[in-house]
Design brief:
It comes from Alkalihalobacillus trypoxylicola. The chain is 29% helix and 29% strand. The protein is α/β, with parallel strands linked by helices. It starts with a strand and ends in a 5-residue tail after the last helix.
Length: 318
């Protein structure tokens, strides 16, 4: 996959202008609805014997245009999004630097500079895709804005039962801790990557050593609690039980992002400094404060047993 970074104002003379079929969208999550857009574009590309291109924007438009001081969090940060695009067979991945200046373009200017000038032959986007200043351009106006320079296809909403598959709904599931439902919309378990760092090493003293994971991107963070997880390290996969939270048995203050600590089943390797991926399979309980260390140890044993039972029942491990 060829990745092409573009800053506004675009200089089309410095970019290859071979004809292509272009899928448009922000694609946070690259969920099943997004995949439908890209697969529709891929079908057209095969029929017309043209490369499959995808155009996205970075950072998220809300991060640039919002007045909120809270940092934007992502389902799929840019690097993960790129990996998903490769899996979908994308030939050319255009990443447009989203700035206030770029956001002020009229819909007609966006089409002229970023589609027509790149020799796009066919555009595919979801029913809710908008472009240009204040999102005034959409799939109802693109025919007029394109002035016949390319054809286009609009992909309708994809529903899971009565619920529209969307990044918004996936975020709600993450925040509610309903991670076992996410594959229905995302097509895979929710995944985050990070680095194993030094922690308080309290788990080792309790008989349950843990890997303390520091996220390397601004991910959407699941609801605090205890989860069954899958951990990938150096291409190998392991299962475990994860506490995400503030460890109220030992700490009074709940400040900043919660800690993420994984007890990996039947694992004794030294992985400090390693890059890992964590997949969230199932939330099994809330985080809570225990009256004694013995009560905590008893609960961790129960958490481990419940996690293993879940994995066996769902034929994931053991």
């Amino acid at each position: 996959m060829e990745t092409i970074y573009i800053k506004h104002p675009i200089d089309p003379e410095r970019i290859k202008k071979a004809p292509s079929v272009m899928a448009l969208g922000y694609f946070d999550g690259v969920h099943k609805g997004h995949q439908q857009v890209i697969k529709t574009a891929a079908k057209v590309a095969i029929e017309q014997k043209l490369p499959l291109a995808v155009m996205t924007f970075h950072p998220h438009p809300k991060e640039v245009l919002s007045t909120s001081t809270r940092p934007m969090r992502y389902i799929t940060p840019l690097q993960e999004k790129m990996e998903q695009m490769k899996k979908l067979g994308v030939d050319q991945f255009y990443i447009i630097s989203f700035t206030k200046e770029f956001a002020s373009l009229s819909p007609q200017q966006f089409v002229k500079d970023y589609l027509i000038s790149l020799n796009v032959q066919h555009v595919v986007a979801g029913f809710d895709f908008t472009y240009g200043a204040k999102g005034k351009g959409n799939m109802d106006t693109i025919e007029e804005d394109s002035k016949g320079h390319f054809n286009f296809s609009m992909v309708p909403a994809l529903k899971n039962g009565s619920i529209k598959v969307s990044s918004t709904h996936i975020r709600e599931l993450i925040h509610q801790g309903e991670v076992q439902l996410i594959p229905d919309d995302l097509g895979r378990y929710y995944k985050m990557s990070g680095t194993v760092i030094d922690g308080e090493k309290r788990g080792r003293k309790l008989g349950f050593p843990t890997a303390n994971i520091q996220m390397n991107e601004r991910y959407e963070i699941p609801k605090t609690g205890v989860y069954v997880v899958k951990l990938s390290i150096d291409g190998h996969h392991y299962f475990g039980v994860c506490n995400i939270g503030y460890k109220p048995t030992f700490h009074v203050k709940h400040e900043g992002d919660p800690s993420i600590e994984v007890h990996i089943f039947d694992f004794k390797q030294d992985i400090y400094g390693k890059e890992v991926e964590i997949e969230w399979l199932k939330r099994i309980r809330e985080e809570k404060k225990f009256a004694s260390i013995d009560d905590l140890i008893h609960q961790i044993h129960m958490d481990k047993e419940q996690s293993i039972t879940y994995l066996k029942k769902n034929q994931l491990a053991f």
